[in-house]
Design a protein that fits this description.
- By secondary structure, this protein is mostly helical.
- The protein has a domain of 61 residues.
- The protein contains four helices and no strands.
Amino acid sequence: MARSNRSSKNKPRSQSRRRKTRAKSRVDPKKFWGDPEALPSVADVRVNITTNPVAVVKSLGRPPLSGQQNASEHYFTAVYERAVNLGAALAAGGDLIEAEDLTGD
């Protein structure tokens, strides 16, 4: 008959079992991120802020949430508008657009 390990189940494992450590390999940052000289200059980048952030999502139809379509559309719209606003703020912070472009016309 096999011995029962009931008494050892509640005890913490001993420190004799150690995790295998992986050797850390050095990654060349230039190989990983690519050549920074190949990136386009900031002057070549044009950022457009959309005035209707939910257009593409609404073109897909109503969310398939039975009985919750109206509420879910409201919250999804709020999330999309917030994402566009944060993206616009980041673009203004990175000098990709003028701060005046953020104000409504």
